[in-house]
Write a structure and sequence with these properties.
It is built from eleven helices and eight strands. By secondary structure, the chain is α/β, with parallel strands linked by helices. Bound molecules: phosphoenolpyruvate.
Length: 252
């Protein structure tokens, strides 16, 4: 069955010292798991330091975005080769903060996804609707558009390295979590869509994470849903105790 993936997005937090301390503390909460993986996405400046801190463990280190080119005149970007050189093996792409604050479009996000995959990174594609879109009945259309466009041109054999994170924008950093029923509905829809776009077995193997105010108090019920295969965690990932409890969820 699918191994779950518990991912911490540190956003624009941590200096080198904070990052190494946090990574060390997180490691203490990570025995060798048979059924789950842990991923940390620190800022670019500390990817190498975090990768060094967790080396020898099974923790996956990720960037928070990635360019599609290996190198060149792309001021402010990070290439997949640079992520790998720093010790990373994954990239978060299309986070709602990139879409909303930096106007990243589905076309740009698609280039990033394909670039990550072409250089053998795991690509965590984030999708999710705003509150207005949800309230006007547009949620499923929005998810379908973001996924169809985000994965355009991705080959079925590359899908083993794609993870989708469903992150309703209204739940990110707001303390409001989607109910387990709301999250499950969106995840089931996404899996069905992937099976239409690719094949049933691609959909069955693909991990779909939930993100949006995941906390120690709600992780167990979310993880008990059949189509929720992990969590993408922002705020609570900056506290090793909280993230440790999230990683060590128990399905109830
Ligand atoms: C995120 O950054 O992807 C996120 C879900 O943040 P938070 O957990 O703080 O809502």
């Amino acid at each position: 069955m699918r191994k779950s993936l518990m991912a911490g997005n540190w956003k624009m937090h941590t200096t080198r010292e904070d990052a190494c301390r946090l990574a060390e503390e997180v490691m203490k909460h990570c025995p060798t798991f048979a059924d789950r993986e842990v991923l940390l996405a620190p800022p670019y400046t500390v990817i190498a330091a975090v990768a060094e801190t967790v080396s020898g463990s099974d923790i996956i280190v990720s960037s928070q975005n990635v360019c599609w080119e290996e190198q060149g005149a792309f001021t402010g970007e990070i290439s997949p080769v640079m992520v790998k050189d720093a010790g990373g093996s994954a990239a978060i792409i299309g986070h709602s903060e990139r879409r909303q604050l930096f106007f990243e479009t589905d076309t740009l996000i698609n280039q990033r996804v394909k670039g990550a995959l072409d250089f053998d990174l795991m690509a965590l594609l984030c999708v999710g609707e705003t509150l207005t879109e949800r309230e006007s009945g547009q949620m499923l259309n929005v998810l379908e558009t973001q996924i169809r466009n985000g994965l355009a041109g991705v080959r079925a054999e590359q899908m083993a390295r794609v993870v989708i994170a469903y992150e309703p924008v209204w739940a990110i950093g707001t303390g409001k979590t989607a109910s387990k029923e709301q999250a499950q509905e969106a995840h089931a829809f996404i899996r069905e869509l992937i099976s239409k776009l690719f094949e049933k077995n691609v959909a069955e193997q693909m991990r779909i994470l939930y993100g949006g105010s995941v906390k120690p108090t709600n992780v167990d019920e979310l993880m008990a849903q059949p189509d929720i295969d992990g969590a993408l965690v922002g705020g609570a990932a900056l506290d090793a105790e909280s993230f440790g409890r999230i990683i060590n969820y128990q399905k109830n």
